[in-house]
Amino acid sequence: MTLLSNQAFETLRQIPLYVPGKPIQEVQRELALESIVKLASNENPWGPSEAVKARVIKAVTGSAYEGLGLYPVSDGFYLRSAIAKRRGLNLGQIILGNGSSEIIEMAAKAALLGGGSGVAPKHSFAIYGIATQTAGGRFIECPCSPTEMDVDAILGAVQLDTRIVFLGNPNNPTGVMLGREGLARLVRELRDDILLVVDQAYSEYEDPETYPDAASFLDERSNLLVLHTFSKIHSLAALRIGYGVGHLKLISLLERVRSPFNTNMLAQVAAETAVQDYAFEAFSRARNAEARQAFFTEAANHKCKATGMAGNFILLESALPAPELFKDLLRAGVIVRPMHGYDLPNHVRVTLGKPEEMEAFWAAASVVLDNVGCGCR
Ligand SMILES: Cc1ncc(COP(=O)(O)O)c(C=O)c1O
């Protein structure tokens, strides 16, 4: 059987398959469990807010301008206007994606049109590498510790043919963050013909007063794209919507690789309401901070090593290989994310859930970990 050209076949074979968090229904089907807790994909367990749900219901019911039978507003004008207002930006500086993952793909596609390489720190979101490779680029992972982001390592990994650099800030799955000084160095010292993508998917979980927003460097660097998603603190992961902000000219170029109608109407109206709902964000941020504190306390009680200072997740290291701990927890009805595919062989990533979900996690984890010992101290 012949599939594609030899070259396409070989290139595609080398691209790793993205492994998503296991859905609750799948675990229910496979293990016939009654109660399942999912702490695997960094979703916000508290939402979406009532205002957002009401807005979606209204949109489903339909009006002269909305309804499921009509195409959505292709460029998301109304949502982009709300984002522009919130961020103090021009409408033309904002692009929407079917999740911010799609904007990562658009950025790679645009930057790597003439070939070249993309760079990201080791232990980063898998889509950076996958998007680079599917755009025909070579992916370079720079050495980076799971506990600290290293600007010199990123700059040092850049090659003559590098066209795009990705930074998750905070970084998933390690939960490390580059401060304002480090970010400023990267923005200023990275060659200006390289597109710098700063992925701020988890930024809204940080203190808005102190968070080093890369968008504050937009006047200094035009080759800069800052990404946000509605999948995390806004709790709209099912609807698939995210946005990127950048220089007017950069966004107008990215618009050329965006598919028409890439974001759907329900996602647009939900996100338009969510982006103005500061109270829900503050509520979620506060619950997340409490859950983080409680997690570290519990990890210390079990003599486990937990790391990650930002985002809505924690990396937990144990004496067990990650796939084993993952399976043991799964059998107890708790879904986490094993991290061996991110070169973290003994780590699982645990999303911070509601107090009762974290109780279920520790009830299951204690049985396993107290038996084998965490072995990390
Ligand atoms: C760092 C990072 N960026 C982007 C995304 C993708 O989010 P979206 O659902 O908007 O595609 C994720 C999702 O887990 C993430 O962790």
Automatic annotation (TrEMBL):
<keyword id="KW-0368">Histidine biosynthesis</keyword>
<keyword id="KW-0032">Aminotransferase</keyword>
<keyword id="KW-0808">Transferase</keyword>
<dbReference type="InterPro" id="IPR015421">
    <property type="entry name" value="PyrdxlP-dep_Trfase_major"/>
</dbReference>
<comment type="subunit">
    <text>Homodimer.</text>
</comment>
<dbReference type="InterPro" id="IPR004839">
    <property type="entry name" value="Aminotransferase_I/II_large"/>
</dbReference>
<feature type="modified residue" description="N6-(pyridoxal phosphate)lysine">
    <location>
        <position position="232"/>
    </location>
</feature>
<comment type="pathway">
    <text>Amino-acid biosynthesis; L-histidine biosynthesis; L-histidine from 5-phospho-alpha-D-ribose 1-diphosphate: step 7/9.</text>
</comment>
<keyword id="KW-0028">Amino-acid biosynthesis</keyword>
<dbReference type="Pfam" id="PF00155">
    <property type="entry name" value="Aminotran_1_2"/>
</dbReference>
<comment type="similarity">
    <text>Belongs to the class-II pyridoxal-phosphate-dependent aminotransferase family. Histidinol-phosphate aminotransferase subfamily.</text>
</comment>
<dbReference type="GO" id="GO:0030170">
    <property type="term" value="F:pyridoxal phosphate binding"/>
</dbReference>
<protein>
    <recommendedName>
        <fullName>Histidinol-phosphate aminotransferase</fullName>
        <ecNumber>2.6.1.9</ecNumber>
    </recommendedName>
</protein>
<dbReference type="InterPro" id="IPR005861">
    <property type="entry name" value="HisP_aminotrans"/>
</dbReference>
<dbReference type="GO" id="GO:0004400">
    <property type="term" value="F:histidinol-phosphate transaminase activity"/>
</dbReference>
<dbReference type="InterPro" id="IPR015424">
    <property type="entry name" value="PyrdxlP-dep_Trfase"/>
</dbReference>
<keyword id="KW-0663">Pyridoxal phosphate</keyword>
<feature type="domain" description="Aminotransferase class I/classII large">
    <location>
        <begin position="36"/>
        <end position="361"/>
    </location>
</feature>
<dbReference type="GO" id="GO:0000105">
    <property type="term" value="P:L-histidine biosynthetic process"/>
</dbReference>
<dbReference type="InterPro" id="IPR015422">
    <property type="entry name" value="PyrdxlP-dep_Trfase_small"/>
</dbReference>
<dbReference type="InterPro" id="IPR050106">
    <property type="entry name" value="HistidinolP_aminotransfase"/>
</dbReference>
